[in-house]
Amino acid sequence: TQLLEQSPQFLSIQEGENLTVYCNSSSVFSSLQWYRQEPGEGPVLLVTVVTGGEVKKLKRLTFQFGDARKDSSLHITAAQPGDTGLYLCAGINWGKLQFGAGTQVVVTP
Amino acid sequence: DTGVSQDPRHKITKRGQNVTFRCDPISEHNRLYWYRQTLGQGPEFLTYFQNEAQLEKSRLLSDRFSAERPKGSFSTLEIQRTEQGDSAMYLCASSPTSGKNIQYFGAGTRLSVL
Questions:
Q1: Residues B67-90 as b or e (16 or more Cβ within 10 Å = b)
Q2: What pairs with residue B50 in β-bridges?
Q3: pLDDT band per the 50, 70, 90 thresholds, residue B48
Q4: Which of A44, A96, A99 is closest, CB to CB, to B42?
Q5: Which among A40, A90, A102 has CB closest to B107?
Q6: A88, A99 contact by CB (below 8 A)
Q7: Residue contact A101–B41, C-beta within 8 A
Q8: Which residue in the set B40, B43, B100 is minimally distant from A43, CB to CB?
Q9: CB-based contact, A12 to chain B, within 8 Å
Q10: Mean pLDDT score of chain A, rounded to an integer?
Q11: Neighbours of B59 (CB within 10 A)
Q12: Would you say residue A94 has pLDDT above 90?
């Protein structure tokens, strides 16, 4: 059972479009991480957000942590085919990661 | 390459057989984690080690599963009497003790039980 709900489950867009994926929970987390996973590989950490209301930018990716530290969003501007992958959020409490089911993003040229 | 390595990358076995996977963490990382990931799901925590000590095990880890990290370096995960429901990707991750919750994942071992 995944305590973190991610939406949408699947997103297919054209190169150059923007997209937002969401991560929601009824639990409060001390921090939250976003990972990207490509087929046949393990997840790779993109960002850690710690403070409620925090916004972090990583090139074309913008991550936001909700004020109550229960939810987060990832926004990608001008998506590129290289952004294709499974985006996973993971809540952290007492050093333990709890993952959502992920959003599969496909960016077509 | 000094990342987390897992062996084998793929394993096909028949139901009832035993399998063993190996994980070599990043050198000097004290913590080592095992996760299981099924299709359409995120990784689920199985167990973790601080050096050679197994500190926590998930309820997902039935008595057919056993993990060891005998010298505090590499780890093995054994599944006895495999069942079709064990088919999944088994991921290993490592982190330094002071790593601020940063875990580095291996590429995983994909297990298919026929």
A1: bebeeeebbebebeebeeebbbbb
A2: B31, B53
A3: very high
A4: A99
A5: A40
A6: yes
A7: yes
A8: B43
A9: no
A10: 93
A11: 6
A12: no
